[in-house]
User: Which sequence fits this backbone?
């Protein structure tokens, strides 16, 4: 056991799913041609004035309420000044010392226990543009030249800042997964990390228990839950080894390399005063009406933790089995449609968390866009239950059907894989196998029970895998006199 304790705080940036940007009317469509969704306001041209997006501010308050934050009665936008090519105004409008949502928490499940992580703040800011570094690695140091796309500049961005309450890489992943599920449930963001609409910065240090916080590093722009866990694990190990050797650690910003699984130094860590914050002179303060806050609170949907507990209780599942089903409204809808199509809750959960999850991951699909419908999957589950196809064949067929976008039951018929359950047909095969294996039959009758498995294998081989295992074993035992 390590003598050191891990301390992690996460800063999660979430692009909101509004139709227009934070301070102008430009659209926010992902994947548009570079620099086609810009205007004088989001490009920071002289004489322009920002106008706040009311829907974005409501979304921010909704996020705060879901995280049990206090909604501040008075909040202010500031200018965060720094110079970088993707920042068209050379400052970012952001809430600094007076954020709108403060002092919340998020409960996450880790290894069967509940961990409460404090939420320091959730505040509004505008996103920056996107830099493309052209070269072999995509990193600025090795690039031949860089391009900038300002389509993303000005998109509403919420930053959720946790307290340094996270104590392991596993807890960091669990926190981020739970937060992502909440945001998806609220419908405030598509939280597609691969598209950059949700990004995570991790602040990591280690210390001996009871001591002051150690030297902190910040790992920027982690774009998957898995990457957060890998980067945290690497840094924890790096810090621990350095302290055990007596080496000094440097407060800095680091980059995580997906290929090597290692982090690399980028620059020394900035302090708040480096940004020369001052109140945004072109925007009035935000003073939410208490009645509006309460209306937003009353409109909150069922959140993931409550949804998991309900699904587990109503359908007799474990919380662990219910968790992936409750991960998003789309997965809940798929599960409920499976039940309506006749699948049992246990079978529906098993197929969704195993074969369907495997197929979705392989294809890079969201469950809302699943290529096999709930009705089609329910048909396959029924075929297994009726003995029309064995489970192993059904699993193979399902993955093939998903990849091809076909009905798995139709694919079974197309390939002639329907299982033979007729006893008379199977009996003829059993007779052939027993006649060809006199010695094995004698060994079984002399008490070698394990020989039954070998004989079963011969029967299934003779049936080309299409005999019902249950019927084949029943007939085989009857013929052997057991």
Assistant:
């Amino acid at each position: 056991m390590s003598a050191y304790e891990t301390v992690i705080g996460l800063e999660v940036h979430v692009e909101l799913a509004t139709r227009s940007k934070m301070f102008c009317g430009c659209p926010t469509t992902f994947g548009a041609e570079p620099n086609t969704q810009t205007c004088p306001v989001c490009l920071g041209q002289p004489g322009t004035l920002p106008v706040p997006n009311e829907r974005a501010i409501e979304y921010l308050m909704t996020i705060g309420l879901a995280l049990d934050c206090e909604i501040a009665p008075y909040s202010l936008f500031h200018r965060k000044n720094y110079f970088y090519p993707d920042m068209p105004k050379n400052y970012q409008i952001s809430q600094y010392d007076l954020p709108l949502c403060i002092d919340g928490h998020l409960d996450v499940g880790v290894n069967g226990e509940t961990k409460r992580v404090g939420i320091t703040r959730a505040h509004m800011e505008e996103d920056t543009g996107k830099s493309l570094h052209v070269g072999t690695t995509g990193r600025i140091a090795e690039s031949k030249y860089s391009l900038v796309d300002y389509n993303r500049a000005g998109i509403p961005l919420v930053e959720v800042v946790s307290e340094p309450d996270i104590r392991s890489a596993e807890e960091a992943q669990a926190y981020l997964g739970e937060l992502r599920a909440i945001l998806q449930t609220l419908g405030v963001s598509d939280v597609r990390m691969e598209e950059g609409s949700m990004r995570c910065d991790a602040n990591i240090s280690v210390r001996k228990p009871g001591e002051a916080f150690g030297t902190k590093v910040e790992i920027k722009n982690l774009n998957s839950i898995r990457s957060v866990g890998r980067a945290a694990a690497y840094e924890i190990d790096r810090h621990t080894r350095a302290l055990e050797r007596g080496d000094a650690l440097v407060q800095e910003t680091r980059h995580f390399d997906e290929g090597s699984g290692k982090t690399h130094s980028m620059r020394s860590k900035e302090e708040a005063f480096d940004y020369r914050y001052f109140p945004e002179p072109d925007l009035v303060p935000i003073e939410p009406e208490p009645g509006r806050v309460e209306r937003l609170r009353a409109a909150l949907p069922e959140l993931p933790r409550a949804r998991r507990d309900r699904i587990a209780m109503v359908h007799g599942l474990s919380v662990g089995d219910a968790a992936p089903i409750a991960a998003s409204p789309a997965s809940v809808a798929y599960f409920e449609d499976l039940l309506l199509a006749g699948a049992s809750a246990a079978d529906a959960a098993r197929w969704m968390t195993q074969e369907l999850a495997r197929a979705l991951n392989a294809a890079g699909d969201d469950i809302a866009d699943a290529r096999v419908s709930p009705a089609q999957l329910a048909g396959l589950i029924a075929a297994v239950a009726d003995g029309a196809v064995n489970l192993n064949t059904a699993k193979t067929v399902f993955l093939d059907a998903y990849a091809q976008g076909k009905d798995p039951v139709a694919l079974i018929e197309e390939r002639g894989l329907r299982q033979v359950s007729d006893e008379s047909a199977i009996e003829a095969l059993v007779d052939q196998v027993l006649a060809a294996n006199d010695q094995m039959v004698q060994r079984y009758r002399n008490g070698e029970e394990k020989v039954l498995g070998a004989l079963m294998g011969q029967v299934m081989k003779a049936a080309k895998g299409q005999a019902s295992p249950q019927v084949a074993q029943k007939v085989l035992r009857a013929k052997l006199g057991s």
Q: What stands out?
A: Residues 423-480 form a domain with the Arc Repressor Mutant, subunit A fold (CATH 1.10.10.410). The first strand starts at residue 5 and ends at 15. The chain has a mean pLDDT of 90. The chain has three domains: 5-296, 302-415, 423-480.
